[in-house]
Design goal:
263 residues, 2 domains, alpha+beta, Beta-Lactamase, 6 strands, six-stranded antiparallel sheet
Amino acid sequence: MTNGATDDEIAARLRAVALRVEAARRLSPTGGTALLRSIVEATAALFGAEAASIALHDPATDRLVFEVAAGEQGQGVVGLAIGSGEGVAGFVFSTGQPMALADVGADSRFGRSAAEQTGYVPRSLIAVPLADDEGVLGVLEVLDKREGAFDLRDVELASVFARQATVAIRSSRIERDTASLLLAVLGGTGSDPESGDVEAIVAAAVAGLDDADADPLWALADEIARLRAADPGQLDLVRELLAVLVRRAERRPAGRGRTGPAR
């Protein structure tokens, strides 16, 4: 037991955590370095750029660490760490504002010494924040279009890729932090964290969720996740319809839920 809770109570709490993690996983794409790498690769290809990279903020050191990169000139930046307010990336991270530089050498915010460490000094760049309602996680940079100059449309497109990266990172961190929580709680109950208890608890908690008849809520979560690919212009209509349905459900008397298939 832990803090007076019985094993059954602890198992119930762990199951509740696991269910919430599964909901987050269903509503957000899977995170991880591989997905971030695919995002920067797609970004570099779309812009016809020499390189693209993602730097993430490390709160423990208050530095931006370049985690992934793509393009012929991108690989040298991976692993580089700079101050959270240093250079163009630091400026964008600190202010949360995107920026485009047609001539990096003419801008005092450009960190030439850091660029030289990577073996490639760009001529022009775009930098956009990886941001959501919870804050700024890092920065996406795109370096040197091979044809033409960066413009406002490019900044908007880069921001779309940055939003996808932000969703991926948040999703990945939810899973990581929850796994750590489960391990800590299991350790407190005397269970062996290495024995597969975590996997067993999560598997038991989410078993049968693909069966819409068992719990239609999970089928709804899957449908909502699919809306990410919908035309943004249609989402207002969807939101209005959902609001109507929620109000109807709230007014429905208890005990009158559907007990059989709809007809």
